[in-house]
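REVIEWER CHECKLIST
Item 1: Sequence provided? yes
Item 2: Single chain? yes
Item 3: Sequence as submitted:
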Amino acid sequence: MSARHDRPDLADRRVRVQGQPVDSYPLLPPEAERGSVRRITEVGEEVLHRPCREVTEFGTPALSALIDDMFVTMHVADGAGLAANQVGIDLRLFVYDCPDDDGIRHVGHIVNPVLDALDPAGRRLIDEGEGCLSVPGAVMAVPRTDRAVVRGFDKDGNPLVIEGTGYFARCLQHETDHLLGHVYLDRLAKRDRKDALRQMADRREQVFARRAGKAAVLGR
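Item 4: Structure as written out by the authors:
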């Protein structure tokens, strides 16, 4: 998912890493310092439109390296979340570096995530602008619940429960959708989907130039 354009400097926020509060955290996560930038897949590519495979091997160098690469790729693309199939890997895994609406920055990864079904009486649907790194340049209003709970594992196989509200809840839902083979365009009416694809056609090259510029600054 793309980052909000109106967010303040993440360095000034309270931070939760893997769901736990920390005293301080760098603007560029350690994973991104280690990773290599990968190509981001685009809507229409087959890997984005089918369910991803469960991760069955934890604690491997390959899984750690994938997470590192996903973090730096997300950072270069100004993202708030990135699923593995967005870098061409059909595994149930996503990373995130996303603010909520209460001034808290959430950073982490989750493997084999499953969204909890929430009681309809205790949730609200919010229509808010949403973008996707695989639909570069397009932003459309998408209804999402204002709270989300995701259960899964960290890269070493330890159980995780991540709860989000506001924009972070939107991010958790958006990225879990990716792992089920859905992009946010699938939630739009036909006319709105066409509008999003027009936006992408108009802005795609500008987005790619921005990404290339950020990668160059990082020496990637």
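Item 5: Key structural point noted by reviewer: The chain is about 30% helix and 25% strand.
Item 6: Recommendation: ____
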